[in-house]
């Protein structure tokens, strides 16, 4: 009985490890796709149930930034459509600027991505930063 039970435990562990490896491969593929085309990368991760289609989940994914190109993060956050703007605000909410002076807070914020080149995108991002900074430092 004990041997059969440990065999079942080993099989279930093997299946679990295999699923985990597959998931890690898909996440790596999603990161690669994101770095080439941010929207397609996010779409891939959502379609494969690796990321929930919520502003908060996507913002958390971008904030962690593991293996993500900072320029691609900036491009995604700078997009003009409503959903991306909500992701931007959720992303900024993940930053804690309390008791930092303006320069320190700006450095921390700009360390998490690269600003895109378009003035309107930069303006949207800096507006979101300013709101969060004032919220953290009334």
TrEMBL record:
SMART domains associated with the record: Sec7 (SM00222)
InterPro entries, per database record: Sec7_C_sf, Sec7_dom, Sec7_dom_sf
GO biological process terms, semicolon-separated: regulation of ARF protein signal transduction
Pfam families per the UniProt record, alphabetical: Sec7
Matches recorded under PANTHER family: CYTOHESIN-1, GUANYL-NUCLEOTIDE EXCHANGE FACTOR
Record gene name: Cyth1
The name this protein goes by in its record: CYH1 protein
Molecular function as annotated in GO: guanyl-nucleotide exchange factor activity
Domain annotation SEC7: ranges: 16-138
């Amino acid at each position: 009985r004990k041997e059969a039970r440990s065999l079942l435990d080993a099989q279930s562990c093997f299946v679990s490890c295999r699923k985990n490896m597959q998931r890690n491969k898909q996440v790596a593929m999603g990161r690669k796709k994101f770095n080439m085309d941010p929207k397609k990368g996010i779409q891939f991760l959502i379609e494969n149930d690796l990321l929930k289609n919520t502003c908060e989940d996507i913002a958390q994914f971008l904030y962690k930034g593991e293996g993500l190109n900072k320029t691609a993060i900036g491009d995604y956050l700078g997009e003009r459509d409503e959903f991306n703007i909500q992701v931007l605000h959720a992303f900024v909410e993940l930053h804690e600027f309390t008791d930092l002076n303006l320069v320190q807070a700006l450095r921390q914020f700009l360390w998490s991505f690269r600003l895109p080149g378009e003035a309107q995108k930069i303006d949207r991002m800096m507006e979101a930063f300013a709101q969060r900074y004032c919220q953290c430092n009334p």
